[in-house]
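Changelog-linked ticket: GBH example.
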Amino acid sequence: DVREDRAAGLVFPPGFTFGAATAAYQIEGAVDVDGRGPSIWDTFSHTPGKTHLGHTGDVACEHYVRYPQDVALMKDLGLDAYRFSVSWSRILPEGTGRIEQRGVDFYRRLVDELLEAGIDPWLTLYHWDLPQALQDKGGWTDRDTAHRFAEYAGVLYDALGDRIPHWSTLNEPMCSSLLGHMAGQHAPGHTDPVEASRAVHHLLLGHGLAIQTLRDKGADHLGITLNFTPMKAATDSAADLDAARRLDGQQNRMFLVPIVTGEYPADVAEDLTAAGAPLPIEDGDLEIISTPVDWLGVNYYFQSTVRAVSEPTGKQTAFIGGELVADLEPEGPTTTMGWGINPEAFTELLTWISGVAPGLPMFITENGSAWPDQVSADGQVHDPERVDYLLRHLAAMTEAIEAGADVRGYFAWSLLDNYEWARGYDQRFGIVHVDYDTQVRTPKDSARTYADVIRTAKDGV
Ligand code: GBH
């Protein structure tokens, strides 16, 4: 059939890694179990009005107890690798100091289960769930949090380092800083440009310090995951081009460039200073931030088209000093998130990153799409839109690889339908369906398609 032909037409480099990704707060549940301390996402999701219908991660996919079944599912799909994040406040309930052994033991059980199943664990230290105790002291706006993050990295290495082959420090620092402190859409839900700019810098500093700690202890294959939203100007007018430049600066370049070159892009630093929110850089920080990494994680979902407007739209945006910039409605079909579908922009993005960061291997650490719940009478989940999105983005990625981009792996977002942050359980990104009443998992057609792709690639057909 057509799907199989499309799957078989994809060509991957030898040794390519195929995986799926999740994040702790989105799947684990069990938020008050085994000594876990509260995180900023517990606080935020329990604050009335912050999330869709007040949804929280209290239960989520109950992965904390159902992980053996989830690992078995990954094995059935033929995944090589699994990207997951660790809940900092399970390991250090107060964010620093006292270690909670029961939290460590959970991740040890999970990792052992993965290794037993022949699945390679990719551990992310931080996917947005800062211990509330650290938020109470200022969170990422406070420079000390960067040092606490490196402390946590060291604790985790001492506890699990012997069995973790791949480490990522942060997932999408853009979201933790700008969505959390500027747009207010994510925890801690603030809307303050000065805080946002401080969070940007302290997250990057924490990343560099954690890399140094892990490297000193002997950890290998260290990386970071960034999200990229390619920015297109609506027209060639100077104002629209400048709007695209500013947003590209804050979404993409502000995070990638200092890690790779040891300098913030000058135009971005100027925009922030002009907006009264300068980056709080101290001597030596940029050397720490640019401590060499072994790989770059790339998360890609869609492209934005932006234009300049003469009056503020009144919508709180995630951009510092970007009040006079507006997003256009995407052209063509959109996912239930309202996001457009632009595989060509994915190819261009990977080629662009190769130019900015030559010699740095890339892994696609997230890519996926949300569609309506599609359980049919036969109990199966037919998700043709997600199948199409998956195959088109895999094709776009292999095109970039043929053009010279050093992409070595792909992780589908997400293994499971899960807690989509402020959008709650309404948005389903999983290749595996989760029934939130029964917690029954059902692989969707997209999961089967992905399994076919993987099998075909391994068979060398
Ligand atoms: C990822 O975030 C997350 O890592 C993952 O946990 C999440 O479930 C998944 O994607 C799906 O959402 O809103 O103006 O800043 C992706 C976050 C959302 C970041 C869109 C960039 C666009 C511009 N991305 N955002 S803006």
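Closing comment: Example verified and attached. The longest strand covers residues 120-126. The pocket of GBH is lined by residues 23, 26, 171-172, 175, 179, 227, 229, 299, 301, 318, 366, 413, 420, 429 (CB under 6 Å).
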